[in-house]
Amino acid sequence: MAGKKEEANIKAYSQNFTTMTPGPFAKKMRTCVLFQIIRFIIINLKMLVVVSKSH
Amino acid sequence: MARLVVLGGGVSGHTAATFAAKWLGSAHEVVVVTPNAKWNWIPSNIWVGVGQMSKEEVTFDLAPVYAKAGITYKQAKALSLNPEGNETSDKPFVTVEFTETGKAGTTENIEYDYIINATGPKLNFGATPGLGEGSNLGEFTVSVCTADHAVHAAEELEKCIQTMKKGERQKFLIGTGHGMCTCQGAAFEYIFNIEHELNKAGVRDMADIKWISNESFLGDFGVGGLHMKTMGYAVSSKIFAESLFTERGVDWIIGAHVNKVEKGKAHYELLDGSYGEEEFDFSMLIPPFAGVGLKAYAKDGSDITATVFAPNGFMKVDANYAAGAYENWKATDWPKTYQNPTYSNMFACGIAFAPPHPISKPMSSPNGTPINPTPPRTGMPSGIIGKAVAHSICDKILKGENAPLHEASMAHMGAACVASAGKGLFNGTAAAMTIYPVVPDFDKYPGTGRDTDYTFGEIGLAGHWIKHILHHLFIWKAKLKAGWTLIPE
Fold first, then answer.
1. Which of B414, B458, B459 is the closest to A53 by Cβ?
2. Which residues of A touch B406 (CB under 8 A)?
3. Which of A51, B8, B350, B361 is at 20 to 30 A from B32, Cα to Cα?
4. Span B169-194, average pLDDT
């Protein structure tokens, strides 16, 4: 099978045919600890801004 | 000495009562009336529902916490309000019925100077035949709305896993159990936790997982969807959600009003007017919410429930209930102070206040069946509103009746939402989202209705860690442990 595993769930002209699907790099980054530590800091800062704007 | 009575000990009521007790000190009295003996961090019920946490990890006894805070705690449920008193007294009071062992069924009239209605919802399982009776869950589906429900859900899930290990395929149906449900986010989180657990158990290939909900598009979440800034684009939550469902191999049915549930089968009507049915071996369908059924009586004993409460049982506050059609809706329709327009010493917060209208565009099938999400008022907004209301009342007590009220409109408030998909620290992931404001303001933010600098979402371990931290942080805060006031709602 030559196709990419990540794209196997998409079925032509079904309800999921028009969406995007992550490739191996995007999926790897989700669980890359170093990258996620950086995202953890950024997301927390963003959330703190939203919290402070809400009080 | 003034007395503040708080009806309900959930996120909103607990926040209001504990801050009020701190700000008022011992010179005034704060009374909490809640039928539950335990506080429940409801977002973590999802993990209980897949067997990754115990009930004890998401609940704790309220009595010692309230004793420490100097709050008078009555384990009881409110039955009715007499905001003008009765024929023998001008003092307003609330009638409660005790639920604690030994006093169950006995009633008491509690007089108050101020009252906060934070009762939360009635879980209206009875609205869908077969989903349950009244507020009781039926036998055909499971729920994660309470910790006990979640424990039961985990047991049923484990049975399905064992069945799949024996080689028998299983069908999972998760979503909303009525056309007028809210809390799609909880079901969203649960379906991906189940998917994660089935993978972990090595039986994912034996499972057909399907989502069913009343959203008109996937990713509506009861807030009319949202646009998130990603890679320079403002991307719709529809794309975000559809992508996740596709990646995890989960099918979906949307625009669905589940109108009947029987053993192993859910019947539904779609927005296009067609009808269908879906078989399942395991199903978690969120029930619609309603007010808890509080009555209100005038001084002469006449029924004024319709004056104080909206038809859905939620308390009327300073919202614009006459906004009319969707095209007329404004961000300013949403309440700011949560004060009852008829009785100025009555407030409502959390799910208990009557919203002016949904956030998602109202829709109905050609048969006239309304099918659209009702507005979420849980989590972060619920806590912020509870604190603002407590602040207003404390100012009135301490600074005088004319003290200005504090405001916390959902049209000026953001929310952070973390939907986990699995619990492991290094193999679980979560969708972390913020939305600002919760209620879109199309005048201020033309197009998307929201500030896309502060509305974002991404999937990864980071969000998952935040979910773990929030679990411990909010339970720490609710237990009033050191520094609890520094933890934001």
1. B414
2. none
3. A51
4. 94
